[in-house]
Design brief:
Helix content: 40-55%
Distance between the termini: 54 Å
CATH class of the largest domain: Alpha Beta
Strand order of the largest sheet: 3-4-2-5-6-1-7
CATH topology of the largest domain: Rossmann fold
Number of strands: 14
Shape: globular
Order of helices and strands: HHEHEHEHEHEHHEHEEHEHEHEHEHEHE
Strand content: 15-25%
Number of helices: 15
CATH architecture of the largest domain: 3-Layer(aba) Sandwich
Largest sheet: 7 strands, parallel
């Protein structure tokens, strides 16, 4: 089904995002969301979940001028990414505003008015507005990435919000992973939700590199050069590792840029812009930034070490294989990590094929 209900400007905005026709998850989600049912979209990262809920939510907002909607996301990066997509396709008479942790509260109050029809925010800022009764008229609540939302202690207010009988609240969950805590929440709060689990998943190949000898930094540089990696995201578990990796890679002729959660908003923007423009071959970051990265032309995800959970690996790997592209996720594992790698395979039902590197790193 084409985007026949959209106007020319909206279709042009979608084309700018590389979207010309709805994919499977977007087709499946439209009818139950439009009907006001609770919906759970369980699909991999990069499968179009954001548009899958935004477009039918927009249709609901246009059909009912008194209705408002809230999208709750775990981090500022994902909030701003969602706001950019929403503003691209929402008409001016359906205002969109962000309520994010790192944005200025005073400036935020000016943009978050009663006229705001779609609020996209982090748990702390949305909880503040809920406590101050500033969410009147909200009839649609989207929980984008449920696992990390429920891990945030501030999100306890969700139970109180969902327990209210008036006004009726449609809840939409869009998540790449659903752990035990999320499944318990869904069984308790949304037992009758329509479950959508599309078969189409990102086209990601999973590989592993056995690291012996001098170290993973050497293995990483060797792999990047041997496989001619031009657009890759490198994940490390510890922020302190990023500075070392950048120095090491730069010394070996591999330009890279670091994007850290604790950096300023402007610094993160500059880093992402440098990577997008081709000024850096590798973007170095941590799991705390993973869910907010929308980089559709990334071909490689390079896991400098294993993430702390299977869900974290899903979000790391999901930075590639987006928007119909193919991608490769590579784990660098030394001998102590081999047991954890096998457990990761069992937990996710994956098989990491062995990747070989033979050439020495550049000098």
């Amino acid at each position: 089904m084409p985007f026949s209900t959209l106007n020319d400007a909206q279709r042009a905005a979608l084309a700018e995002l590389g979207v010309h026709e709805p994919n499977e998850v977007q087709r499946l989600a439209r009818t139950p969301i439009l009907s006001g049912q609770p919906v759970v979209i369980h699909a991999g990262t990069g499968t179009g979940k954001t548009l899958a809920y935004l477009l039918p939510v927009l249709a609901r907002l246009q059909a009912d001028p008194a209705l408002r909607a809230v999208v709750l996301a775990p981090g500022t990066e994902l909030v701003m990414q969602t706001v950019r997509v929403a503003r691209a396709v929402f008409p001016p008479d359906v205002p969109v505003a962000a309520a994010a942790s790192t944005t200025n509260r005073r400036r935020q109050k000016k943009t978050l008015t009663r006229a705001t029809r779609l609020v996209v925010g982090t748990p702390d800022r949305v909880a503040e507005r809920f406590a101050k009764r500033k969410l009147k008229g909200v009839g649609v609540l989207v929980l984008d990435e449920l696992d990390p939302l429920l891990a945030n202690p501030v999100s306890e207010f969700l139970e109180r919000w969902l327990a209210r009988s008036e006004p009726p609240l449609q809840v939409i969950v869009a998540s790449a992973t659903l752990g035990r805590r999320s499944e318990a929440f869904l069984a308790r709060s949304l037992p009758d939700a329509v479950r959508l689990h599309p078969e189409a998943q990102p086209a990601i190949e999973h590989r592993s590199v056995r690291v012996r000898g001098p170290g993973k930094d050497v293995a990483l540089a060797r792999f990047v050069q041997e496989h001619k990696v031009r657009r890759g995201v490198v994940f490390a578990s510890e922020p302190r590792q990023l500075a070392h990796l950048r120095r090491f890679l730069d010394e070996h002729g591999i330009p890279s840029v670091v994007v850290r959660r604790d950096a300023s908003k402007d610094a993160r923007k500059r880093g992402l812009a440098q990577f997008r423009s081709g000024g850096a071959r590798l973007l170095l970051t941590t799991d705390r930034v993973a869910r907010g990265l929308d980089l559709p032309e990334v071909d490689w995800v390079l896991n400098y070490d294993l993430p702390r959970s299977p869900q974290a690996y899903v979000h790391r790997a999901g930075r590639t294989g987006r928007a119909g592209r193919r991608g490769v996720s590579v784990v660098f594992a030394d001998d102590p990590a081999l047991g954890a790698l096998r457990r990761l395979e069992r937990a996710l039902g994956l098989r990491f094929t062995r990747a070989q590197t033979t050439k020495p790193p550049p000098r």
